[in-house]
Design goal:
This is GntR family transcriptional regulator. It is a single chain. By secondary structure, this protein is α/β, with parallel strands linked by helices. It is 47% helix and 19% strand. It is built from 8 helices and 8 strands; from the N terminus they run ααβαββαβαβαβαββα. The strands form 3 sheets. A 4-stranded parallel β-sheet has the order 5-4-6-7. Strands 1-2 form a two-stranded parallel sheet. It has a two-stranded antiparallel ribbon with strand order 3-8. Strand 1, helix 3 and strand 2 form a beta-alpha-beta unit. The N and C termini lie close together (9 Å).
């Protein structure tokens, strides 16, 4: 069994074809579901969509920041950064000075990194960003929703994935 990441598949069509032919299952988060669904649809493969939430301790940390703090949320793509910011807003935390950006937009990323007081990065981009601006980059820690954990356990049992 191999594990393939979306950014690898995007950049290498031979990897994508190999992944599709070998895959027992495709799993992605909600913010990438449409893209992955379109990629695998011609092959007749099913997609399992899982959800993630931000850890409560991090929400409390963000809520305690002074209101003038400029925040940035960074993921592989802008959609992921927007998703991260939306989770904070859904928790009732007002973001008065907030930017969202993806690693795929290097010009905007440089601007945002130089202007933001605090940058929250998804685990996929955290190490890269920490090397660029070590003082203000923080991990945006996520965990699977309980229903997604159960869904993956069921998928593993049914597909004999271990």
């Amino acid at each position: 069994m191999g594990i393939w990441f979306l950014e690898d598949i995007r950049s290498e069509s031979s990897s994508f074809n190999e992944a599709v032919s070998l895959a027992d299952a495709f799993v992605t988060t909600l913010n990438h579901a449409e893209e992955v669904k379109q990629m695998i649809h011609p092959f007749g493969k099913k997609l399992t969509v899982i959800g993630a939430i931000i850890e409560q301790a991090s929400l409390l940390e963000i809520a305690k920041l002074p209101s003038a703090t400029s925040l940035a949320f960074v993921c592989l793509g802008k959609v992921g950064g927007e998703w991260m910011a939306e989770r904070v807003l859904e928790a009732g935390i007002e973001l008065t000075n907030c930017s969202t950006v993806g690693m795929d937009d290097s010009m905007l990323l440089s601007k945002v990194l130089s202007e933001a007081d605090r940058v929250y990065a998804s685990s996929v981009v955290f190490e890269d960003l920490k090397q660029k601006t070590p003082d203000n980059v923080h991990l945006y820690p996520m965990q699977l929703e309980k229903s997604s954990e159960l869904l993956l356990q069921e998928l593993a049992v049914n597909k004999s994935i271990r």
